[in-house]
Automatic annotation (TrEMBL):
<keyword id="KW-0256">Endoplasmic reticulum</keyword>
<keyword id="KW-0378">Hydrolase</keyword>
<dbReference type="InterPro" id="IPR008803">
    <property type="entry name" value="RHD3/Sey1"/>
</dbReference>
<keyword id="KW-0812">Transmembrane</keyword>
<protein>
    <submittedName>
        <fullName>Root hair defective 3 GTP-binding protein</fullName>
    </submittedName>
</protein>
<dbReference type="InterPro" id="IPR046758">
    <property type="entry name" value="Sey1/RHD3-like_3HB"/>
</dbReference>
<keyword id="KW-1133">Transmembrane helix</keyword>
<dbReference type="InterPro" id="IPR027417">
    <property type="entry name" value="P-loop_NTPase"/>
</dbReference>
<dbReference type="GO" id="GO:0003924">
    <property type="term" value="F:GTPase activity"/>
</dbReference>
<feature type="topological domain" description="Cytoplasmic">
    <location>
        <begin position="1"/>
        <end position="687"/>
    </location>
</feature>
<feature type="binding site">
    <location>
        <begin position="65"/>
        <end position="72"/>
    </location>
    <ligand>
        <name>GTP</name>
    </ligand>
</feature>
<dbReference type="GO" id="GO:0005789">
    <property type="term" value="C:endoplasmic reticulum membrane"/>
</dbReference>
<feature type="domain" description="GB1/RHD3-type G">
    <location>
        <begin position="55"/>
        <end position="274"/>
    </location>
</feature>
<dbReference type="InterPro" id="IPR030386">
    <property type="entry name" value="G_GB1_RHD3_dom"/>
</dbReference>
<dbReference type="Pfam" id="PF20428">
    <property type="entry name" value="Sey1_3HB"/>
</dbReference>
<dbReference type="GO" id="GO:0016320">
    <property type="term" value="P:endoplasmic reticulum membrane fusion"/>
</dbReference>
<comment type="similarity">
    <text>Belongs to the TRAFAC class dynamin-like GTPase superfamily. GB1/RHD3 GTPase family. RHD3 subfamily.</text>
</comment>
Length: 687
């Protein structure tokens, strides 16, 4: 049970109990308990120790040795840790398992392996073997702790332990080609060194024993030639008796401590080659995985373990990187979905992406490179597919916005009369495409296969449709304007010539018509030049102008030949001949005057006008006006023009029945004049 409370060695930091969870925030932790279960709290403990983000900038040391040889005492002295030490007074066995502490003032994790002396007590060696595997897979240095009097006892428990360590190490690193970077330091600490036998002699004895053990190992055939020094560096040190020479003991411990803490010490123990290259943030999971393999007696394959660790950690790191990224991406999803063009979306997306990647790279790049790269590609995929809808949405919105602006620019450009349609379209189109291209390119992530060209193509088509519609509207407007002008100009000559009925009346009208129309057509063409219309469109427009001009002429003629109007004209004509003499002086009838003859003459002359009005028929056939033969098929959405019409039929102004009707009505009018004339002679006689 981990001890609660604050230990004086704890980096001077005092933790508030409120911040503690399940006791795991203690400065030491039992990572493997007596039931050989691995703790679930190591990860958070490493974080509490402040080592989680250390990368490779940390070290791990483990201690091995027989029970009650002062291992925990040594570690506490060297590293300022607080491992349990056997109580002197009742000599109770301390808790078994593997404990871990952070060294005071060093980025070092220290493992205290509390085993049993299986050999001496006849207990199982299972734990010892597992602990050795576990420690070798993670530690840079194994401190082998032994009494001076154990040196040379080749058959002793220590030698059994070392045999186990060697065997296990062969299994772990035996096949490794790279012995220069896969080494472990065995640091022998000889306790209760009396001094009569010099350390050099003790080292010699131990080295000889180690060689014997190594040679006695049954090695696989391909590893027969491997030497102990291919895998291990050996170092020996001795400490005086703690009870008999306490001051010397303390001084010895201090000297040894500086070999761990002082990088400038020429005997500094932590060499890069010893490091197992597990990033600090993966140590807990790695150890847990190793222990699980060890526990289930599976073959411990370190490269596989490292790859598994890399997969697990890279996934974790990626999902942390993604979490923040997703929040950022989400912030712009709504505006994009709502149809907004988000300004600087591309640079936002690039920021989120590079932030996520650098978060991932910072932590994950320390792991197995293949795994790191593979997971990075996955992460990139997720990032890009998260951002892709934003990009596509932005394009759609940009497309819409550009089209709206294009329409507005067209309207604004066509305000007033002094504009050139083609220039207005060209300017608006250029502005539209430029903006789209710029903003679409801004939104694109350059390391993707995203494209916006298709969307631009769609936009172009719609812009063209709008421009075409505007052009059609403009054409229609110009046709209407031309039509109005022609109509206005036709009015006077038609009235004039129809009033003074003469045999060449129609020649005059048609000539005037021809002239006005030609002028109208010319004006139309000059104004329509900026529409960039096709030849065919111009031909069609002119045909419409012509047809409508003809209809205008016809309606003016109809107006001037309406019953009352034409009867008025006839009456005027008749009166001029019957009531006035050839000098334009009003006629005063005398009884001897031939009223009957004059009346008949004026009446018949007047009636002769009716056939003249009845049909548009110039006396000079060359003045005859003909409409283009396809005039009837033209269309400019104009119902008036679309109506089927028969040109020959439009030449007829008054039908036979109409003429009969008009002549009988005129006769009645004329009769009235006759009666009035007769009456005036009677009254003059009566005077
Ligand atoms: P561990 O079981 O190997 O971890 O040993 P402990 O550190 O718990 O110590 C076991 C006993 O040995 C304790 O009573 C210690 O006081 C005592 N002890 C510690 N260091 C030394 C030493 O250097 N020499 C001797 N003779 N006794 C020691
Ligand atoms: Mg102990």
């Amino acid at each position: 049970i981990p001890r609660e409370g604050i230990h004086p060695y704890m980096n001077g930091k005092i933790r508030s109990p409120a911040g503690q969870a399940n006791g795991s925030t203690n400065d030491r932790i039992q990572i493997v308990d007596e039931q050989k279960n691995f703790t679930t709290d190591l990860s958070s403990q490493i974080e509490q120790w402040g080592l989680r983000d250390a990368g490779f900038g940390y070290n791990i040391v483990a201690v091995f040795g027989s029970q009650s040889t002062g291992k925990s005492t040594l570690l506490n002295g060297l590293f300022g840790t607080n491992f349990d030490v056997m109580d002197e007074t009742n000599r109770r066995q301390t808790t078994k398992g593997i404990w871990m502490c952070r060294a005071k003032g060093m980025d070092v994790m220290v493992m205290d392996v509390e085993g049993t002396d299986g050999r001496e007590r006849g207990e199982d060696q299972d734990f010892e073997r597992k602990a050795a595997l576990f420690s070798l897979a993670s530690s840079e240095i194994l401190i082998i702790n032994l009494w001076e009097h154990q040196v040379g006892l080749y058959q002793g428990a220590n030698m059994g332990l070392l045999k186990t360590v060697f065997e296990v190490n062969l299994g772990l690193f035996g096949k490794s080609q790279d012995s220069a970077s896969q080494r472990t330091l065995l640091l022998f600490v000889i306790r209760d060194h009396i001094g009569t036998t010099p350390l050099a002699n003790l080292s010699g004895t131990l080295t000889a024993d180690l060689s014997k053990i190594w040679d006695g190992l049954s090695k696989p055939a391909e590893l027969q030639d491997r030497k102990l020094s291919d895998y291990f560096d050996l170092s020996f040190t001795a400490l005086p008796h703690k009870i008999l020479a306490p001051e010397k003991f303390v001084a010895g411990v201090q000297t040894l401590r500086s070999r761990f803490s002082d990088k400038d010490n020429e005997d500094f123990v932590f060499k890069p080659a010893y490091h197992k290259r597990i990033p600090a943030d993966g140590v807990a999971i790695y150890m847990e995985g190793i222990w699980e393999q060890v526990q289930t007696n599976k073959d411990l394959d370190l490269p596989t373990q490292q790859e598994l660790l890399a997969q697990f950690r890279c996934d974790e790191i990626a999902s942390v990187a993604l979490a923040e990224f997703s929040e950022q991406a989400k912030s712009q999803r709504r505006p994009v979905e709502a149809g907004r063009v988000v300004e600087g979306l591309g640079s936002l997306m690039r920021d989120w992406k590079s932030q996520a990647l650098s978060r991932y790279d910072r932590d994950a790049s320390r792991y197995h490179q293949d795994v790191y790269k593979r997971k990075r590609a996955d992460l990139l995929g997720v990032i890009d597919s998260t951002l892709s809808p934003l990009f596509l949405g932005q394009l759609k919105n940009l497309h819409k916005s550009c089209l709206v602006t294009f329409k507005k620019d067209m309207v604004a450009g066509m305000r007033g009369d002094a504009y050139n349609f083609a220039d207005v379209v060209a300017a608006a189109r250029e502005k539209c495409e430029k903006r789209f291209t710029q903003e679409a390119e801004e939104a694109r992530l350059h390391d993707t296969d995203w494209v916006w060209e298709d969307e631009l193509e769609l936009l172009r088509e719609e812009v063209k449709a709008v421009a075409d519609q505007c052009r059609a509207d403009e054409t229609k407007k110009l046709i209407n304007l031309t039509d109005r002008n022609i109509r206005k100009q036709l009015s006077e000559p038609v009235e004039l010539h129809l009033n003074t009925a003469s045999p060449d009346m129609w020649d005059k009208i048609l000539n005037a018509y021809k002239e006005i129309l030609e002028k109208g057509e010319a004006t139309y063409l000059s104004k329509a030049r900026s529409f960039n219309c096709t030849e065919e469109e111009n031909t069609r427009a002119l045909a419409t102008v012509r047809k409508r001009a003809w209809l205008a002429l016809r309606s003016k003629i109809d107006e001037q030949t309406a019953d009352t109007v034409i009867l008025g004209k006839l009456r005027t004509h008749f009166e001029e001949r019957f009531r006035y003499d050839e000098h334009g002086v009003p006629q005063v009838w005398k009884p001897e005057d031939d009223i009957d003859g004059a009346f008949k003459k004026a009446r018949d002359q007047t009636l002769e006008l009716l056939p003249l009005y009845a049909k548009i028929a110039p006396s000079d056939p060359s003045a005859a006006y003909e409409l283009p033969s396809d005039a009837g098929t033209l269309s400019l959405d104009d119902a008036q023009v679309d109506e089927e019409f028969d040109f020959a039929a439009t030449l007829l102004v008054l039908s036979e029945t109409k003429i009969m009707d008009l002549s009988s009505r005129f006769r009645k009018d004329a009769d009235a004049y006759y009666v009035e004339a007769k009456r005036s002679t009677v009254s003059s006689i009566a005077q």
